[in-house]
Amino acid sequence: MNDPLYLAAAVAVMALVTAALRFAPFLLLGGRRTPRLAVYLGRVFPCATVGMLVVYGLKDLSFAGAGGFVPQLLAGALVVASYLWKRNSLLSIVGGTAFYMVLVQTVF
Q1: Which residues, including other chains, have CB under 8 Å from residue 28's CB and lie 6 or more apart?
Q2: Spatial distance between the Cα atoms of 17 and 95, rounded to a whole number of angstroms
Q3: Sign of CA dihedral 94, 96, 97, 99
């Protein structure tokens, strides 16, 4: 599994598949207008994805003790507040994750 030739071939295959998937819509549609369904899905999927991530991230909350829900809720509140403040998704996610890890490792 640590064979350099095997790893290089695996990376090359993954790169080709990724590139093919990225170029496929342009090759299939040509110069035609983007279908309405694709435009609709492009508008709806980001919000739906974030909603699913929130549900998945908070699905195991336990209200038996403060350590089961306080870190998640505080980190989530920090993510929302920092995004509203700076409008930077990466900063919000990294800051919220770091804050959560600090809370879990030191406080709770």
Answers
A1: none
A2: 33
A3: positive
CB atoms within 10 A of CB 69: 16
Residue type, 29: L
What φ, ψ does residue 2 adopt, rounded to 5°?
-95, 10
The tens digit of pLDDT for each residue in 33-47 reads: 888 998 999 999 988
3-state secondary structure 63-105: CCCHHHCHHHHHHHHHHHHHHHHHCCHHHHHHHHHHHHHHHHH
The answer to pTM > 0.90 is no
- Phi/psi for 69 (5° steps) reads -140, -25
Locus of tokens 């699913």: 52
